[in-house]
Amino acid sequence: MELNKLGVIEANKKYIDGEFSAVEMVNACIESIKEHADKNAVIEVFDDAICCAEKLDAKREAKEKLGKLAGTVVLVKDNILVKGKKATASSNFLKNFESIYSATVVNKMLSEDAIILGRTNMDEFAMGSDGSSSIYGKTKNAIDDNYSAGGSSSGSAVAVKLNDCTFALGTDTGGSIRFPASYNGVCGVKPTYGTVSRNGVYAYASSFNQVGPITKNAKDSAYVLEIIAGVDQMDMTTLNYQAYDFSSLIGEDVSGKVYAVEKNISSLIKDKECESYFNALVDFIKAKGGVIKEIEIDNILRVGDVYKLVAYAEASSNLSRYDGLKYTTQAQDCLSAQEIYVKSRSQGFGKEVKKRIMLGNYILSKKEVYAKAKNLQQLIINSYNEKMQGVDCLLLPTSFGVAPKASENRQECILGVLANVLRAPSISIPYAKNKEGLPLGVQIMAKELDEKKIYQLAVSIEKNYGEVR
Amino acid sequence: MRDKYDVVVGLEIHAELKSKTKVFCSCANTYGAEPNTLVCPVCLALPGTSPVLNKKCVELTIKSGLMTNCKINEYNYFERKNYFYPDLTKSYQISQVKVPICVDGYVTLSSGKKIGISDIHLEEDTGKLTHIGDKSYIDYNRGGVPLIETVTKPDISSADEAVEFLETLRGIYVYGDIAECKLEQGGMRFDVNLSVKKKGSTELGKRVEMKNLNSFRSVKRAIEYESARQIALLEEGKEVLGETRKWDEDKNENVAMRAKLATAVYRCFADPDLPMLHIPKELVEEIRKDLPLTIAQLKELYTKEYGLTEYDAGVITANKMFSDFYNECIKLYNKPKELSTWVQSELMRNVKDKIKISPEHFVKIIEMADAKKISRTNAVPLIAEVMKTQKDPEVLAKEMDIINSMDDSNLEPLIDALIEANPKAVEDFKTTPDKIITFFAGQLMKQTRGKANVVKAKEIILSKLQGK
Questions:
Q1: Does domain B408-466 fall into CATH 1.10.10.410?
Q2: Least confident stretch, B152-161, B162-171, B252-261
Q3: CB nearest A320 (choices: B49, B82, B275)
Q4: What is the ipTM score, two decimals?
Q5: What is the pTM of this model?
């Protein structure tokens, strides 16, 4: 049994049944990480992981009750804080920052006996879509080094694909979980805004950001999401639900369910390969008895503008706490506070981050632009909710094709940011492979808090689609 | 010259709320702790933290609004004011800019004039910078302490009116348990906006802002100085510049601040970490139901209902601590005037900063004196002793041996002996009877260590002396 290849539910069951020890599991993952070091997905393995595994094994030995994540190993994106560990947002500015507290999601996983093995590479401050702006260097695509790993949660997606862990956490502000999930052939979900606490997660754009699991299959995704979701008194934007049900429809037939495609999005698909895969999936769902409906959401092509205006504005303010005075690195030989700000921030932030901060400040200095963008966001949400009446899920490609070449940049922002602007849940699951074996993901969205409908379809596609492909 | 002009003043008053914890985290809101001991990841703005609104602060702000006749906005929200400064950990201050909690109220002055309040909003205080030599130190204990900013309409027309308004407002906030307003601790700070215009003119002059004044006296002097400065400029045919000027307390003058500092652009936007604040009408009504009396209302109660003099009502309400105590005692002892005398003499004599005696014990002592169980003279040390030990007054009085144990029949021989020993006084009785009775009573109390029933004793002394 290759322990590191196990999924979450599987690993937990086998561990509780005594089929392997946590120490064995951690070692298997560490071996895998070493083997894949050239991919640059994992930037630190925590030195106390084995010790935590020993403690867990002792707990099992003592016949104590074991948590839902006992026997699993998780890697977290470098912008999620773990007490006593470095968390740098892959930025030069915070390269020495060690957190004195743990993110709520980390505490929730720990209380279910997960072992936190280390942290994964990402675009600096989660700004980017190919992992290239990290101080640790670019992450390579899990399947082929010549292709992009996607971003910003590049390390987490690649690590899951390479079985460096049982599952990983990423963050998604405008596609940052789903793009790398699609490019590397794993399952990644951006939950409904407010489902998962952002406490202890580096803020990029507060209005859009959500933490989500990256897993080897959709069932695990629902399982982990139920664990990390829930109201948190440390994050006032979390929705007031103690517990969520994401998995109760898993296994149910999709026959008679209504699935929508969006007219404007469909017309944007130029890649023949991508189009034919997508149409084949639609046909498959029809064959399974699903009803396909075409909808058109007002102003949908403006979600990219809304995203940029809101995200950059919020980022400029969220990142101004990194001022060179407190816990960041500080420029030398400064004679005034003003000079410390200017020099430290100039030296500390990378190019993409600076660009977004400057644009954000410009946006905020223009009266009402931010508020207008928020209003437009609400209009698009209203239209989405209206058009989704009687519809279970919306289907769309996660990206306009397989991973682009490592050096290329593709304009597919709209596919990533749509779910964030709509505050709606969206999952990306792998559903096709091209001739070179590169994976491609499909996105399944639903109305706010309708995650379980997403998982119903996702698991059904995962289980049955492979047979007809 | 001054009569030709109207002075137009608006005030912005920052007051630190009297809450147990800070406005966006659970650190203690306490003054005077060791620097940087009342801090946490949230108020230090560590990565990954976001504000958690303290409901108590919202309730206190609502209370401040209700006590100043404001309307409460059912929906209101917080914004970020972005600027870099070392005392500001997040590099933005969370405040309310467009839609605050309270709007459109007023405070009435003794003349009957109403000073309009345009809004009261909730925000957070910054840390504190100290400069020693060429070094600067930052204390973030104050960072995140809740502030309410009260903004008046430009209804104030003189320095004296401004001071009266501030005194009234402070009275309201202190009496409402909203803010302690300790000026010496920076618990209340003021910005003054001032312009002058030709008398009767409806056109307002250019407005000058003076920031961060920290006493009523400096507000008064700043208004006097600035109005004179502006009038002098206009008289010389010069122009008043709309600018921010810094008041220099030592020099008793103000100077223009650099334009760059004065015209900060805050790039405000609704804080995405804090959802829209909804204040249900029921909450407002609940707070309204429990509103305490203001000083003015208390004074009216004391004079009209309790029959105290204006003076006595003034003395008791001058300090909320005493009026609170008085209000508690009156529930147990329904003789308002007598109680007022006791509070003003026996109690105040014994109190430095805190009243360390319960209303129950205090009233018990008064009742013991009323029943002649102890003398009023001995009440003072007894109160002091109760404050020290917190023991029951009756038990203590016994321990102190001050219970009136003299049987009245035992008084006669003692009085006889005193009269015998003081022939001169007996002689003087004919000319100054009252003085002599008091003299003999005093001697008697001294001999009995205050345990004699003084009223009865005086009766006996009088009859004895009259019989001579």
A1: yes
A2: B252-261
A3: B82
A4: 0.96
A5: 0.88
